From TrEMBL:
It catalyses: Hydrolysis of proteins in presence of ATP. Residues 99-185 form the PDZ domain. The keyword Hydrolase applies. InterPro entries: Lon_proteolytic (IPR008269), Lon_Prtase (IPR027065), PDZ (IPR001478), PDZ_sf (IPR036034), Ribosomal_Su5_D2-typ_SF (IPR020568), Ribsml_uS5_D2-typ_fold_subgr (IPR014721). Its EC number is 3.4.21.53. This is endopeptidase La.
């Protein structure tokens, strides 16, 4: 009897292990549609609309042995190696910081483009150089962290990203550099001894970080965005349309349930994103009627390297045909394509 109980306990522990132990793989599957008006508010903006604009998400989870095996049997679940999700140079914290930075840039670009399309001015301010990740063994290892903003180098205020590059060009390995940076809204100062940048063939002194510009934008009317639970840049197009829809008196939706995806670039171009097939499936499941898909151009060089690579729009159309949806897939290369389509759309 005791032997049977022991075997039963071992069996339960094995099941628990296979169900809970996380392996170095991720599973991507359809997420959900979320009305953008729930996240974006223009002060005194027009929200009296018949239809809706929705951003799309994919569901991403780290696999366990059980979910890994299950995903292999599912048509609309994709297994991804951890390096397909996360840059090999970054840890989990740096990955999360980068996703939040991409979302922050997405909001910035959405406000900028929407206000320019509405004929309104914006005030852009450079805040500093945002640290994305710190290279192991580099000058900043153990000193700077992902999310820090470098504001001064040797007492000189950094006015743009190019200025940081120029200041460091004059430096040599073993030179000392005084860095002022902001962490958790508090300014700090450290002195670094410059080392060779890890992973580079040329022996060049540097901070040993990857970085991006940090800018803020002020608008009138004010735009508030609540996006704590969303990462990445793919909501940029729909953020832009929602801001514009609230700025303008007319209803861009014309009474339709409109979804879409795509990174919004500062010049108004709509950039390619990942997982568009799963977003099409989720949009259909959530009752969307129109879906904006980036019509990105695949360069001849990329086509040679990845013969099966196709535009987001092409993938979206194939997926729509595969699931038999009546949802209209609309290609967009830039914000004007989306606006022109909506302007010509007959009210529902």
């Amino acid at each position: 009897m005791k032997k049977k109980i022991s075997l039963y306990v071992v069996f339960l522990l094995l099941i628990a292990f296979l169900s809970l132990y996380r392996i170095d793989a991720y599973i991507m599957k359809p997420g959900s549609a979320y009305e953008v008006s729930e996240f974006v508010t223009v002060a005194d903006g027009d929200k009296d609309d018949e239809g809706s604009l929705s951003l799309m998400t994919v569901a991403m989870q780290q696999a366990t042995p059980v979910t890994y095996l299950w995903a292999k049997t599912q048509k609309y679940q994709k297994l991804m190696d951890i390096n397909q999700v996360r840059n090999p140079l970054e840890d989990n914290e740096e990955y999360n910081v980068r996703q939040l930075k991409l979302m922050s840039d997405s909001q910035f670009n959405a406000k900028y483009v929407a206000f320019k399309k509405a004929g309104l001015d914006v005030d852009v301010k450079f805040e500093g150089v945002f640290v994305l990740n710190v290279l192991d063994g580099g000058s900043s290892d153990g000193i700077l962290k992902a999310g820090d903003e470098i504001v001064k180098v040797d007492g000189q205020k950094i006015e743009n990203q190019a200025m940081l590059v120029e200041l460091l060009k004059k430096k040599r390995i073993d030179d000392e550099v005084k860095i002022q940076f902001v962490r958790n809204k508090k300014q700090q100062e450290e002195t670094l001894t410059l080392k060779e940048i890890p992973g580079t063939e040329e022996k060049r002194a540097g901070l040993g970080i990857t970085y991006a510009e940090s800018k803020t934008i002020e608008t009138t009317p004010e735009v508030s965005m609540r996006t704590e639970d969303i990462g990445g840049p793919s909501a940029g197009l729909m953020f832009t349309l929602e801001i514009l829809n609230q700025l303008l008196p007319e209803d861009l939706t014309k009474g339709y349930k409109i979804a879409g995806t795509g990174e919004m670039n500062i010049d108004g171009k709509v950039g390619r994103i990942g997982g568009i097939d799963y977003k099409v499936i989720a949009a259909d499941r959530d009752g969307m009627e129109i879906f904006f898909a980036p019509e990105d151009e695949i360069s001849p060089e990329l086509k040679v390297k990845y013969p099966e690579l196709e535009s987001n729009y092409a993938t979206a159309v194939k997926t729509a045909e595969d699931i038999g949806t009546k949802m209209k897939i609309v290609p967009v290369k830039n914000i004007d394509d989306a606006i022109n389509y909506l302007e010509k759309l007959e009210p529902k």
